[in-house]
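sanity check this chain:
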Amino acid sequence: MHEEIREIALSAYPPTLRNMKNPPPKLYVRGCFPAPAHYKYLCVIGSRKWTTYGRDAVNRIISGLRGYPISIVSGLAIGIDSIAHMAALEAGLHCVAFPGSSLAWNKIYPPRHKELARRIIDSGGAVVSPWKSDDIVGKWAFPVRNELMAALSHATLIVEAGKRSGSLMTAKHAEDMGRDVLAVPGHISAKQSYGPHMLIRSGAALITCAADVLRELGFEPTENDQVANTVLNIDKESRAILDLISLEEQTATSIKDQLKMPIQTLNEKLSLLEIKGLIKMEDMMYKLANGNMY
């Protein structure tokens, strides 16, 4: 039944969407929309040309929102959008997707994400569009879709965006509507860092972990909960590094020698563990960032 397309009127929209300047008179929905009234909507968007850093940041941040009344909103697009949807599904969060198309299964855009749309519906989320099934939709639809995502959401989080990224227009819509704009900083040499860094300079909240997002949405996470969520989402090699460092502070060379790990792999794992806030380096020694526990 949830896969059937329903038509909902303006009066049934969530307050955030109902109060935008020119809301569409109707929306077409497959699945459960809106989310429960007490939920917060978080739009997570970014570059189609994502990097490993961007993917890991999305997965880490969204996994840390597990258990909170939050609905993840994104555009079903290739790249950060679809990564955000999949991370939300993995975390058991409500999810709302706005494809740049109608909801007819033979028109869902992009076509490769039709099964992802079905997964979102089957998990209790929704796929939403302002266009009827027989409407012909072109590239002009994406700015409309982006404005709707920003209007629905209490906050919009940007993870990687180049100079011409549509994500920056979504952030502009959010700013114009008085919504919070959040951004994950990137590597200073990466083209995809242009958007987040520009937004941060303009006043967007700098986001480094799920706890930052939760506070921006009005929640008060505990540090222990955040660390536990982070540790649950590390791979076997990273856990071996943590196990070693938990016994005694280590240099990179000593870790490499004891775990017999290629130096390139080790450097990547150490960098990600530092980004996750699990380890830190002082005087060329790696130690746990949270005392003797992780």
